[in-house]
Design goal:
The complex is a heterodimer of chains A (267) and B (167). Chain A is α/β, with parallel strands linked by helices. Chain A has helices spanning 2-14, 55-65, 77-88, 106-112, 135-142, 145-156, 164-168, 196-205, 214-218, 225-240, 261-265, and strands spanning 19-26, 29-35, 71-75, 97-101. Chain A folds into 2 domains: 2-112, no CATH class; 135-264, no CATH class. A 4-stranded mixed beta sheet of chain A has the order 2-1-3-4, with helices on both faces. In chain A, a hairpin with a 2-residue loop joins strand 1 and strand 2 (29-35). Chain B is of the alpha/beta class. Helix content of chain B is 41%, strand content 14%. Chain B has helices at 13-21, 23-26, 46-55, 77-85, 106-124, 141-158; strands at residues 37-42, 64-69, 90-95, 131-135. In chain B, helix 3 (46-55) packs across helix 6 (141-158). The longest helix of chain B is centred in the last third of the chain and has 19 residues, at 106-124. Classes of the chains: A alpha/beta (267), B alpha/beta (167).
Chain lengths: 267, 167
């Protein structure tokens, strides 16, 4: 923690950083904040704990408004992956982002059922083993097709079309969204046209979803939507041997014409 | 840095495709279950193949509503999902054989997308066999007829789609 603070303080003073995006405690609440050289004292109230905010989503909103600034970010494992995906999609500039990795606690990893609760470089926190929880996924896969459909129609039918899952998603950034396209999703219906409303998001998540679990955590109707995205992740791994969020250079075969040709060639 | 904008402008060629697809809602069967299939045919091979099938008087079922697209790679996952939401019993995507695409590798995009969509459909509980990808060249009129016949029969055996609107 002290190492991180020292690094940031030095970078802010040397002006290699314009600001640091982190969480701070303020009046008993944990809030995301930007520390700049003007309010460097705020670093003292910076916290690294179990509280989670969609830092990558906030970051891409900041970068959209202030593209010229160099911003430091305190990142968890999932956020690091999300930022890699944002860099690949040209939403943030890799040269203008400085990441300070922190490892999550065992409790946080359990709450998120996170498989990799640490970033590639850890400046604070101790690395703990990930949690692998695919219970619901295997339960659904074991169902006969008909039961699966009725399970999902029940679940998706709860949707109140709040767009929470999309708004919080770190890898959803398009200004014109397919989930708002009149032809695909007729306006004025609650629940929206199911399952297509959710399938559209699911198909976009293939090769992009970094499995942070925010979508499911914010869903007011407790739809296990993450399970679908997780399935898409497994499919991408199986068919194309591709996993998002690992490297800036490796791009999704669904987004890049030249990638993944061998996987389908002999069909 | 350029942010992604207007990926889907309000009036796009997609709108035209959706309008064509909406024809499927108008067709109604008189006696019993008749499969409703939306077929995306690529302009250069499969559409010509279908033409040849007709020109050479091959008979095949009329269950497929043909929609001409410039390339099988033009068929987006959105189109397939929308087709099933509209109540289509099956979706057939046809294009040039791999390596023979008019746009060099457009059909590879279809070949990459389709298995992913199939897995998604299967996970949700729609039989993945309801979506089929086939390569039909311009000279393969007979093949087009047999693909359509076989697929229609398969869908007929599977029964109506769970999202089919009651008539």
């Amino acid at each position: 923690m002290q190492e991180l603070k020292d690094k940031v303080t030095q970078a802010l003073k040397e002006q290699t950083l314009d600001g640091l995006l982190c969480l701070k405690s303020s009046g008993g609440y944990i809030l995301p904040c930007i520390v700049t050289s003007d309010n460097i004292a705020d670093l003292d109230s910076m916290v690294i704990g179990d509280e989670r905010y969609p830092i990558a989503t906030i970051l891409s909103a900041i970068v959209a408004k202030q593209p010229g600034k160099t911003i430091g970010v305190v990142v968890r494992g999932c956020e690091e992956k999300a930022i890699i995906e944002l860099i690949k999609s040209n939403q943030v500039d890799a040269n203008r982002i400085v990441q300070y990795g922190v490892a999550c606690s065992k409790e946080r990893a359990q709450l998120c059922s996170c498989e990799v609760p640490y970033p590639s470089e850890i400046l604070a926190g101790t690395k703990v083993e990930g949690v692998s929880d695919n219970q619901l996924l295997s339960k659904i896969e074991a169902m006969p097709s008909k039961d699966r459909l009725s399970f999902w129609m029940d679940q998706l039918g709860k949707c109140i079309k709040c767009y929470g899952c999309r708004n919080i998603c770190p890898v959803c950034f398009c200004e014109d969204c397919a989930m708002e396209h009149d032809d695909l999703v007729p306006t004025g219906l609650v629940p929206p046209s199911i399952p297509s409303f959710h399938l559209i998001k699911a198909i976009h998540m293939a090769g992009k979803c970094i499995d942070c679990g925010f979508c499911e955590q914010v869903c007011p109707m407790n739809i296990p939507i993450r399970t679908i995205y997780r399935k898409m992740g497994l499919v991408m791994k199986e068919v194309f041997d591709y996993e998002p969020g690992l490297s800036i250079d490796e791009r999704s075969p669904l987004g890049e014409l030249e990638k993944g040709l061998e996987a389908v060639a002999e069909k | 840095m350029q942010r992604l904008r207007n990926i889907q402008p309000k009036l796009s060629w997609d709108t035209v495709i959706y309008e064509d697809m909406a024809e499927i809602e108008k067709t109604s069967s008189v006696n019993g279950f008749e499969p409703k299939i939306i077929g995306f045919l690529c302009n250069w091979c499969s559409y010509a193949g279908a033409d040849l099938a007709g020109g050479s008087r091959k008979s095949y079922p009329t269950n497929v509503l043909p929609i001409r697209v410039m390339c099988s790679g033009r068929v987006s996952s959105h189109h397939v999902i929308k087709a099933f939401q509209m109540g289509a019993d099956g979706v057939l995507v046809t294009g040039c054989h791999l390596g023979e695409c008019h746009y060099m590798k457009g059909n590879y995009m279809a070949a990459k997308r389709v298995p992913v969509i199939q897995e998604l459909l299967g996970f949700i509980g729609i039989e993945p066999e309801r979506l089929r990808l086939e390569w039909v060249a311009a000279s393969e009129g007979e093949r087009f007829a047999s693909v359509v016949t076989e697929f229609s029969e398969k869908i007929r055996a599977m029964g109506p789609s769970p999202f089919r609107k009651s008539e």
